[in-house]
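Sequence only, no structure available. Ideas?
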Amino acid sequence: MNFIQCVQAAKDFWQPNRYILKEYVIKDGKKHPFAVICPGGAYSMVCGFIEGMPYAKKLNEMGLSAFVVYYRCKKKALYPAPQDDLARAIHEIMARGDEWNLDLEHYSVWGSSAGGHLAASFGTKNMGYEKYHLPKPEALVLTYPVITMGELTHAGTCRNLLGEEPTKEMIEFASIEKNVTPDYPDTFIWCGDADRTVLPENSHMLAEQLEVNNIRHQFLVYPGVDHGVGLGKGLACEEWIEEAVRFWLIL
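Reply:
I predicted one. Tokens follow.
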């Protein structure tokens, strides 16, 4: 991490621990599809400097508007606070769709790491779009996501979301692979086979359930790629955003 990235990481870490929505809207008078982005950070911070703003700017270059959600974290992250914040963001975006020239029928929800768990939860009945009376997203885009709250979870993510001693019922409730149904959104997932932070088995578990439930999906595993790489420039995954957009908009 270079000096500029360190400074930005510090700014993200010390962001006010409250809901914030940052918009990256294309202002050319035309309507554009849009992405709602949930950066990672183990529900202990929101790493917008690597998994938020860079994604949004890349999507802008591709003709897509984008929004980055700074959701509550640390001691304020207990379920359902992050899920409430994501739903609040989408309600706000939908309400201002005309102002921001958004194509409200074409939106996707993106998430990385713990933000991947948050985005993936938005597709479930118990934690997601139906609960919050929101339209189903066209696609979910999940980058090295935390999926399970069970044995193969990322411990910090689970602890921040569910507390120190979650019940078996709450672990199952918040494990995405336990809550995939046939009306789950189309899903693009990727991870690296060298991920030492969030075990790749998380992504495999979700892909298996998407297959069982006949959900349109694409699952990519990139060789030699570790966790937290963001855009992945110079790595085997460096074209993942292009792949995700092609999947989402069926280009």
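DSSP finds nine helices and seven strands in the chain.
Hope that gets you unstuck.
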